Amino acid sequence: MWHLSLSMESDTRETLAAQLRNALRRQIDQGALRPGTRVPSSRQLAKDLGVSRTVVVEAYEQLCAEGYLTSQRGSGTSVADAAPAEVGSALTTDETPTPEVWDLRAGGTDVSAFPRQDWIRSVSAVVRAAGPRELGYAPPSGLPPVRRTLAGYLGRVRGVRVRPEHLMVTSGFAQGLALLCRVLRDQGHDAVGVEDPGHPGEWAFIADAGLRPVAVPVDRHGIRVDDLAATGVRAVLTTPASQFPTGAALSPQRREHLLAWARAVDGYVVEDDFDAAFVAPAQRMPALQSLAPDRVVYAGSASKVLAPALRLGWLAAPPGLAASIERVRAGWDIGCSGLDQLAFARLVDSGAFDRHLRRLRAEFQRRRQAVHQHVARHLPGASPLSGDGGLQTYLVLPRWCAEESMVEAARRRSVLVRGGRFHALRHDDRPPALVLGYAGVRGSDLGRGLAGLATAYRDLTP
Ligand SMILES: Cc1ncc(COP(=O)(O)O)c(C=O)c1O
Predict the structure, then answer these.
(1) Do 325 and 370 have their domain in common?
(2) Is 245's C-beta closer than 6 angstroms to any atom of ligand 1?
(3) What is the DSSP letter of 444?
(4) Does residue 8 form part of some domain?
(5) Distance in angstroms (rounded) separating the CA atoms of residues 158 and 169
(6) Which residues form the HTH gntR-type domain (predicted)?
(7) What is the CATH number of the domain that holds 283?
(8) Residue 413 CB contacts under 8 Å (≥ 6 apart), including other chains
(9) Which residue's alpha carbon is at the smallest distance from atom 16 of ligand 1?
(10) pLDDT tens sequence across 239-281
(11) How far apart are the CA of 200 and the centre of ligand 1, in A?
């Protein structure tokens, strides 16, 4: 059953068993055969190599005696875990208890809530039904039935106006952004406006594509369009549903203003809608794209609503960009896994995705309230910047509380958290802040993390 690719140096002075033994030993020493790797049965390897079985048995026995292989009745022969000296040191490391750490850095999601059974059912149905078309190459922009489902879903929940054939399935939001930057550069752009504070990872993507990320300030109403206009850029990346990381919703007046700016400069607004599913009802508005599909590039992701591991996202681009994006994409990766796309579409069509989101939304809403209550009670003087968006709280600290000292004090209490400056593109004298992510830590762990934070705050309070 197990196949082994083995090159034996034929040396007529050595027996076949010795040649085999040397070849195996060499592969183990060089790391090609990793600890724990199953090797074929003696009968199978003898057949594969065209030698008698006793040759293989003799080689295996010798390597077992030397500690290179281990053999157990019922589970066959495997490469031994490690040389005896290494086993000793590995044990000592394993026995050292690792301290518990509460990770409140923004960017995570609750992967423990991943709807495993529903996903297994979807995958199983898709694989059972898959014919030559489903198992072959998918069109680079995505399978047509999947794009139909997605276009219907995005229209239903976000008001997105897109024809299925103009919607692209991407490998996460990240790929959509990279594609877009490449096309913007080809069209003569040399800079892209970005929200400040924002996501340093996205600025790196933009810079890697040869464009300059230009900081645009945000306030309680989202991105400041007057400041954007003053930069001279003609494209901007925004998170209108819930500004990352402040959580502010772009106000209706700003939405109008932003779209008027895009028309005036003949430019584009890139709408990163990655966490819109978790915006509280009072703050929820249709996607910006629904107001101007000719000026807004709409991009979403399955990373927060299901799991980052899926690497699934989507992109709806205005006609002026869509064809170029498709052309570039076809030269990059020939599309995402068709089976995963189909499983995702099935999850949506069966209603399981909506059910899952309803549960997750309620859970995140509870956590958000818990964070706000905890802050009000235990961190006097600190105040959340915005109300009901996002998967993190942007907590403005009083001036006396140096941000770096707070991050360090929290770390000493085993709480990982980032300061506002981590998310800042410009270095100015903005008030100290913490960004508390609550999506990746569950109930009691969130409570313990927050308690650690309160103790750290008390440690610093003058
Ligand atoms: C601001 C922002 N946009 C989008 C995403 C989703 O990216 P992706 O779909 O590549 O995982 C993230 C993930 O953390 C994010 O923080």
Answers:
(1) no
(2) no
(3) H
(4) no
(5) 17
(6) 14-82
(7) 3.40.640.10
(8) 452, 453, 455, 456
(9) 107
(10) 999 999 999 999 999 999 999 999 999 999 999 999 999 998 8
(11) 11
Cβ burial of 137 (10 Å; 0-12, 13-18, 19+) is exposed
Residue with tokens 């006097």: 380
Residue-level length of the chain? 462
pLDDT in tens, 61-91: 999 998 999 988 888 999 998 744 443 333 3
What spacing in Å lies between the alpha carbon of 20 and ligand 1's midpoint? 51
7 assigned to some structural domain? no
Q: In which element (H, E) is residue 259 found?
A: helix 252-264
Q: What percent of the chain has pLDDT over 90?
A: 82
Phi-psi region of 266 (alpha: psi -120 to 50; beta: other; left: phi over 0): left
The residues pairing with 406 across neighbouring beta strands, listed in sequence order, are none
**Signed CA dihedral, 355, 356, 361, 366: sign only:** positive
Determine how β-strand 415-416 pairs with β-strand 392-396. Answer: unpaired
281 and 317 fall within a common domain: yes
For residue 216, the cross-strand partners are 195
* CA 302 / ligand 1 centre spacing (Å): 9
Determine the structural domain holding residue 370 and report its residue range. 102-111+355-460
Whether residue 356 has its Cβ less than 6 Å from ligand 1: no
User: Do 180 and 318 sit in the same domain of this protein?
Assistant: yes
> Does residue 205 line the site of ligand 1, with CB under 6 A?
no
